[in-house]
Amino acid sequence: MFTTEKSELIVVTGKGGVGRTTISAALGIATASAGTSTVVCEVSQQAVIPALLGASGKPVDGVISAGPGLSAASIDPDATLRDWIRGQFGGTIAKTLGSSKSFSQLIAAAPGAAELLTITKAWELGPGRGFGKSSVDHDTVILDAPASGHGIAMLRSPRTFADIAAGGQIRKQAEKVWDLLRDETRCAIVAVTLPSELPVTETVELDGWLHDVLGRRLDLVVVNRCESHGFTSRDLGRIGASVTSGELKRAAIDVADAAADRQNEQDALIGELEDQVGAPTIRLPELSAGLTGPEIVSQLAELITAQLT
């Protein structure tokens, strides 16, 4: 059974537009609420995760407090590159190389290098690896990974780079991250999807890729924005009996029929997903558009906790 508090690293991925970032933030709250020191990382310079978690204050090494036991981090690929250069070559050389456009382009073009630097930065925030000035150990790192295609490239990057690197610290780190990703007792991989055909298909394909390349499967599937108010045949009968106006009755029944059809289609797709993937599945509703981002995340965290316990 998937539990939020037992993993050093939780990688959240899925098709673009399914709500990965929101779910990552909600998982962060759920994990921290269970007493686990947690940091939620995004691969972005936009600081969406800190805003969703209601974080305030000045970040240290990109990490900002979001409450007791909970932090947020925005991993800036360019800053990560500069940190890596400084760690490898020291301050003076790092300053020269870091300002070199050609060197940055070379790193970006190297197979898996940019992805490796990003996932390694997330790894460094984990237990026993206090990073930079913050020197904070987090029991669990939740990585809001890129959408499925780029997310797969990121998960593959430690193996890709370890295979081409001659040796040294970079290869050692790549191998450590690769071992972590393959270890189901230390790393969980969560897919976020929607109850519609294309996202479900991509989730099934992702699970197959994980099996073929990492030798493991998904640990949890979060089906986001589910239809939560379907109508049963009994409900339809009650609507028909309670509405006296013929025209109004027909309109009410049509609306209820459409909602019931959506519910049935959704249930069929989720059933197909569960049959093919086998990982635990939780369903989350579409919440009111009138709520703020932090309010939505807080409610989703409660729903996640309720379904995982």
Automatic annotation (TrEMBL):
<dbReference type="InterPro" id="IPR027417">
    <property type="entry name" value="P-loop_NTPase"/>
</dbReference>
<comment type="similarity">
    <text>Belongs to the arsA ATPase family.</text>
</comment>
<dbReference type="GO" id="GO:0016887">
    <property type="term" value="F:ATP hydrolysis activity"/>
</dbReference>
<protein>
    <submittedName>
        <fullName>Unannotated protein</fullName>
    </submittedName>
</protein>
<dbReference type="InterPro" id="IPR016300">
    <property type="entry name" value="ATPase_ArsA/GET3"/>
</dbReference>
<dbReference type="InterPro" id="IPR025723">
    <property type="entry name" value="ArsA/GET3_ATPase-like"/>
</dbReference>
<feature type="domain" description="ArsA/GET3 Anion-transporting ATPase-like">
    <location>
        <begin position="8"/>
        <end position="161"/>
    </location>
</feature>
<dbReference type="Pfam" id="PF02374">
    <property type="entry name" value="ArsA_ATPase"/>
</dbReference>
<dbReference type="GO" id="GO:0005524">
    <property type="term" value="F:ATP binding"/>
</dbReference>
